[in-house]
């Protein structure tokens, strides 16, 4: 069995209290990024159902979507398959004052593409060679790059798959390829180990998030991210509501000249 089996869950009250505190710090970080014109890239990788997506949701919950963007790319198009591999990711990198959160990233080639045979051995080898060079270029250019690997045991992954299969709200999170990852557990383990050997570099190290307990994983990842960026609270100019000027006789268009949304809520009040 995998590691961390039977790990005790963080109590909900303590989790929610600390999450809110960390989210307030993320808002401060966002303001610092905006004012300092920083560029932040956070990569979320890990096995299916390891908790990447739910962590990203908690990270962005109170952030401005113009500052913090989630990048979750679909499979490459025919044209993109003929481009330099990193090309389609480059256009999603942040400009000054932006944070890009990659829900999976260029590491697709070292994971799913490698295991499922979607790339050639030559393309895979070239990726392992180019990836550290690519990331060093980003870091050298001043990009703050953080890479998180969400680690989950085979037993816990299967449990999460099962609960997704039974939940109509979360079935979309499962694809046939996700389910096939159960039968290829060891292939994915080997691919991940090989990927780490080549891409866990001093300039852009991998940070492993123990993700057996989702609550702990979210708290630990956000706290760690905040600890690695030298942000400070930015003083915002005080805002006040201006007085409303007196009316100049405007009259609203009659409601029956516009298409109103039906009052569905009324049926709930009865």
TrEMBL record:
A Gene Ontology MF term for this entry? polyphosphate kinase activity
**Per the UniProt record, which EC number(s) apply here?**
2.7.4.-
Q: Polyphosphate kinase-2-related domain spans which residues? A: 11-236
Gene3D superfamilies referenced in this protein's UniProt entry, alphabetically: P-loop containing nucleotide triphosphate hydrolases
Domain of life, per the record? Bacteria
Question: What InterPro entries does the database record attribute to this sequence?
Answer: P-loop_NTPase (IPR027417), Polyphosphate_phosphotransfera (IPR016898), PPK2-related (IPR022488), PPK2_PA0141 (IPR022486)
* Keywords assigned by UniProt, alphabetized: Kinase, Transferase
Q: Does this UniProt record's set of keywords contain Kinase? A: yes
Q: Where is this region: Disordered?
A: 234-270
Q: Which Pfam families match?
A: PPK2
**What is annotated about its quaternary structure and interactions?**
Homotetramer.
Q: What does this protein do?
A: Uses inorganic polyphosphate (polyP) as a donor to convert GDP to GTP or ADP to ATP.
Q: What family classification does the UniProt entry report for this protein? A: Belongs to the polyphosphate kinase 2 (PPK2) family. Class I subfamily.
Q: What's the protein here called?
A: ADP/GDP-polyphosphate phosphotransferase
Organism, by scientific name, is Kribbella speibonae
């Amino acid at each position: 069995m995998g590691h961390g089996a039977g790990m005790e869950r963080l109590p909900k009250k303590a989790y929610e209290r600390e999450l809110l505190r960390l989210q307030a710090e993320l808002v401060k970080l966002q303001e610092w990024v905006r004012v300092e014109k920083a560029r932040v890239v956070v990569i979320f990788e890990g096995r299916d159902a390891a908790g990447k997506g739910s962590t990203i949701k908690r990270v962005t919950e109170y952030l401005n979507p113009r500052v913090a963007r989630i990048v979750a790319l679909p499979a490459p198009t025919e044209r993109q398959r003929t481009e330099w591999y990193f090309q389609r990711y480059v256009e999603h990198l942040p400009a000054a004052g932006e944070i890009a959160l990659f829900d999976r990233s260029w590491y697709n080639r070292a994971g799913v593409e490698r295991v499922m045979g979607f790339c050639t051995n030559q393309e895979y080898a070239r990726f392992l060679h180019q990836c550290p060079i690519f990331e060093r270029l980003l870091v050298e250019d001043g990009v703050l790059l953080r890479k998180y690997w969400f680690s989950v045991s085979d037993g816990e992954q299967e449990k999460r798959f099962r609960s997704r299969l039974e939940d109509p709200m979360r079935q979309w999170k499962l694809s046939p390829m996700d389910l096939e990852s159960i039968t290829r557990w060891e292939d994915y383990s080997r691919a991940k180990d090989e990927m780490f050997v080549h891409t866990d570099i001093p300039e852009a190290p991998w940070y492993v998030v123990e993700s057996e307990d989702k609550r702990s994983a979210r708290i630990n990842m956000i706290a760690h991210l905040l600890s690695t960026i030298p942000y400070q609270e930015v003083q915002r100019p005080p805002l006040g509501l201006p007085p409303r000027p007196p009316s100049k006789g405007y009259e609203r268009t009659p409601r029956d000249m516009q298409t109103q949304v039906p009052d569905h809520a009324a049926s709930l009040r009865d």
